[in-house]
Amino acid sequence: AQSVTQLDSHVSVSEGTPVLLRCNYSSSYSPSLFWYVQHPNKGLQLLLKYTSAATLVKGINGFEAEFKKSETSFHLTKPSAHMSDAAEYFCVVRYSGGYQKVTFGTGTKLQVIP
Amino acid sequence: EAQVTQNPRYLITVTGKKLTVTCSQNMNHEYMSWYRQDPGLGLRQIYYSMNVEVTDKGDVPEGYKVSRKEKRNFPLILESPSPNQTSLYFCASSLGREIYNEQFFGPGTRLTVL
C-alpha cells in the first residue's frame, strides 16, 4: 500500500531562518509527489510537484523540494521564513501501477516567530 | 474563473437525516475526488472518479455514496449521517487520471452531525 510520512507534526522557526519540512514515502512503483499548503481556514494550494523530471523542484513563494530516491524522501525547504509562511503543509503521493488513489501525509504545522 | 465550488459551506444536521454536498468544477477535468480532513489525520480520500460513471473507493468510503452522471459534478451523499462523520470535507479535481496531474481544491464544507 502506498504511504507517506511527515516526520514532524509541528515545526517552529524564527522569521528569516531556514525552513525544513520532512516527508518520506513508501517505495513501491514510481511516484509523483506534491506539497500543498493550507492557511488557516482556507483551502489547499499547490506549492510544487515532482513528476520524474528534475529531482530539484522549485515552487511558489521561494519553496523548493528535492526528490531523493535512495532515501525515499521529498523534503520541503525555504532559505528564509516569512511570517506569511505560517500554515499547515501536506506532502502527497500518487503512484502509477493501475490505481488512482491519492495519499496525504498527516500534515506539518509551521509556526513562524517574529 | 477556473474553480471548484462546493455547497453548502457549512452544515449542521442530526443523526440519520440524509444530506448531499454538491461539488462542481468548470475546468473540464476528468478526475474528481472527495476528502475528509480531521485534526492529526491529514486528508483522507473517501471516493474518487476517473470519468463519468466511473467511481471507486478511497481509503474511508464507509457511510458515503457518490455519483458522477455529468463530468462537471460529483456530489457526496450521506444516506444516514452519524456523529463520527463530523468533519471538514474537500472536493478536488484534476485534469486527467495521470499521476502527475495536480489537484485543484474547493473551499471546503464543514459538517457537524449532532
Pick out its properties.
heterodimer; A: 114 residues; mainly beta; six-stranded mixed β-sheet; four-stranded antiparallel β-sheet; 12 strands; 53% strand; globular; B: 114 residues; seven-stranded mixed β-sheet; 11 strands; 0% helix
Mean pLDDT of chain B: 94
Query: Topology as H/E string of chain A?
Result: EEEEEEEEEEEE
Uncertain runs of chain A are: none
Q: For the largest interface in this structure, which chains are involved and how many residues does each contribute?
A: A-B, 27 and 25 residues
Strand portion of chain B: over 45%
- State the share of residues found in helices of chain A, binned by percent: under 10%
How many DSSP H or I helices of chain A? 0
Radius of gyration of chain B: 13 Å
Q: What's the tally of helices of chain B?
A: 0
Radius of gyration of chain A: 14 Å
Morphology of chain B: globular
* Number of separate strands of chain A: 12
Supply the helix-strand structural class of chain B. mainly beta
Percentage of β-strand residues of chain A: over 45%
Report the end-to-end length of chain B measured between terminal Cα atoms: 36 Å
What does this structure look like?
- Chain A is an all-beta fold and 114 residues long.
- Chain A is built from no helices and twelve strands.
- Chain A has strands at residues 4-6, 10-14, 19-21, 23-25, 31-38, 44-50, 56-58, 64-68, 73-78, 87-95, 103-104, 108-113.
- In chain A, the strands form three sheets. In chain A, strands 2, 5, 6, 10, 11 and 12 form a six-stranded mixed β-sheet that branches. A four-stranded antiparallel β-sheet of chain A has the order 3-9-8-7, with no helix packed on it. A two-stranded antiparallel sheet of chain A has the order 1-4.
- In chain A, strand 5 and strand 6 (44-50) form a beta hairpin.
- Chain A starts with a strand and ends with a strand.
- Chain B starts with a strand and ends with a strand.
- In chain B, the strands form two sheets. In chain B, strands 2, 4, 5, 6, 9, 10 and 11 form a seven-stranded mixed β-sheet that branches. In chain B, strands 1-3-8-7 form a four-stranded antiparallel β-sheet, with no helix packed on it.
- With 114 residues, chain B is mainly β.
- The mean pLDDT of chain B is 94.
- Helices cover 0% and strands 50% of the residues of chain B.
- At the A-B interface, strand 5, strand 6, strand 10 and strand 11 of A face strand 4 and strand 5 of B.
